[in-house]
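Objective 1.3, modelling of assemblies. Example input:
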Amino acid sequence: MSTVTGTRGPYAKTAKLRARAIEAAIDLFGTAGYNGATLTEVADRVGMSLTGLQHHFPDKDSLLAAVLEERDRRASAGVPEGPGVETLEGLLRMLSESEKNPGLMELQCVLSAEATSADHPAHEYFQRRYSTLRNQAVSGFEEMASRGDLVPGIDPQQLAAMVIALVDGLQLQWLLDRDAVNVEAAVRTFIRTFIPAVR
Amino acid sequence: MSTVTGTRGPYAKTAKLRARAIEAAIDLFGTAGYNGATLTEVADRVGMSLTGLQHHFPDKDSLLAAVLEERDRRASAGVPEGPGVETLEGLLRMLSESEKNPGLMELQCVLSAEATSADHPAHEYFQRRYSTLRNQAVSGFEEMASRGDLVPGIDPQQLAAMVIALVDGLQLQWLLDRDAVNVEAAVRTFIRTFIPAVR
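Predicted structure (C-alpha cells):
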C-alpha cells in the first residue's frame, strides 16, 4: 500500500493520517457504534476521500483492529501492576482519571455491548479481554487472601467478575447521567468491604 | 394509517404484523444495535416489503419506541414489588430466569450502551429508566435500613447504583462467555454482604 521509505517525510505523513483516522474512529465507534459507523463518515471527519482513507485502512475491520490496539495501549498506560493493596489504590485513582476522557469509556461501553453478538468482529477480542482481566484480578485476590487481606469466605473468582462488572455498570450509569453516580466512591466502598486494608 | 375497524379481521391482522415486526426488531437491535439496523432488514425478516412495514412503523424511531414499550412490559412482568427481603429473593430468581431469554438481555445491553450518546433516540428513555430503577431500589433499601436489615454505614443511594451496575456488568460478561460467570450467584453474594437476612 503506502510506500514507507524509511525517510522522514512520507512515513511521518502516513503515521499522522493513520493517527487522525484512528482518533476519528474512536469517537465515532464510541457514539454510533462499530455497527452504526461507516468508513465514509470516518473519511469525512478527517477531511479525506473514502479512497484516500482506504489506502490506510482497506475496510472497517482493519480500522477497528487499529482502534482496539490503540485502546489497549491507552488503557494499559496507567494501570498499576502487582497484587497488593497499592494496586487497588492505583485502580481507584485511574477510575477518577478516566472521567476526564469519556471518549475511551464510551468506546469500551458501546463496543463491548455490540461484541456480545457472536458474529461481531470484536467478539473474540472482548472474550479474551474479559478473561484476561478476570484472571489478573483472581491472581491478585488470591495473593491478598494468602496474606489475610481478604475477608474470609469470599471466592476470588467470583470477586474478580464482580469488581469488573461493577466498574462497567457504574460507568454506563455515569455516561448516561454524570451527576447520578460517583464511580470511584462506589467501587471504593465495594473493595473496602471485601479488602478492609483499603481505606 | 391502517384502518382499525374494531372487528376481528383487519385489526387482528394488523396486531399480528406489528407483533412480528417488534419481535424481529428486538432480535436485530439486540445484535446489530439500533444504529446498525435498518428498517429494510426488519422488513426482510418478517417477509414484508419496506413500504408494507412503513405502513405500521413509518420510521426506525417509531419501531424503537414500540420495542422499548414491549421490553418494559416483559421486564416488569416478573418483577417482584415491595421493599422486603422477599423482593430481593424474587429479583434473584428473575436473574436466573432471564438467562432463558438472552434476546431481551442483549437488547438491554446494546441499546443502553448506544444510548449513552446524547443524540441517540433512546437517550432520555434510558436516563429515566436508570433514575427510576435507582429510586425504587433506594426506597427499598431505606425501608430495610429502618428495620435493621441493612449493614450499618452503607448509603442506600450508593448501594442502589451498585446493585444495578453489578447486574448490568455481570450480564455483559455472561453474554460474552456463558461459562465464565454465574450472574445470580454473584449478585446473591453481593446482596447477602449488605443485607445479611438474604440467604
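Chain B touches chain A through 50 residues (CB under 8 Å).
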